[in-house]
Amino acid sequence: MQLKGCSEAKNKHSQVETSCLFHFLILDLSKFNFSLSKYMKVSASKENHLKAIFHLQQEQGIVTTNALAAALSTRPASVTDMLKKLKDQKLLIYERYKGFKLNNEGKKAAIQIIRKHRLWEFFLVKKLQFGWDEVHEIAEELEHISSRKLIDRLDAFLGHPDTDPHGDPIPDQQGRFHTRRQVSLSELPLNKIAQVSGIASQTSEMLELLQYNHIRLGTRLEIRKKFPFDNSLEVKVRNRPPVTLSAQVAKNVLVKDDESPAEKR
Asked: Considering the entire predicted model, what is its pTM?
């Protein structure tokens, strides 16, 4: 993607390139009389519910009110009110005495929210130099901007990345995810070199700990020793002294073979 008036700067300095992006966005959005209140046609609360249901549905199939309330840290009564609205808008299916799940339209809406969130995270890390443990809360706000044109242009500007800074797949324009075969670090055989491809638990505390131990996406590592007492691991990161990781940390670090191919689903 070429930004008008930025072709020379783009080839010289990435910081100037990023500045050009902001300039471009401001011009583009002002042309459409852009305002957050106008573009946020769907409430942030509704979008948060859709996204949470999608993730729970991937794990559980059928989602219960209590599970959704726990995921959103809210009261079941509040969740019930929103579920009625989503059902009225034909975005989910309710199964009596079982729970609910998103229908095809609900899934499409949720995937687009996830797409926006992960693209913004990628932008914040790669272009604005935020740490990977700093971007989630900011992206939580930016994901509610509903301009499809803005997100498609952001995607093109970033080079259509497949994954966000934590290794989670970024859906493409058609809502397809790139997937890789990966396992948790705790499942990796001894002395087998693998590459970090994702982080399951993305709390700031977990990401800070991994950063401290020089473990990030793309890091090549191997397990030197497993300790049966507490299932902790001695892990060797390339060009670094061995470190010991707890079982809890190890199960949240996802790894893959360097040659593992990406697929779309």
From this structure: 0.72
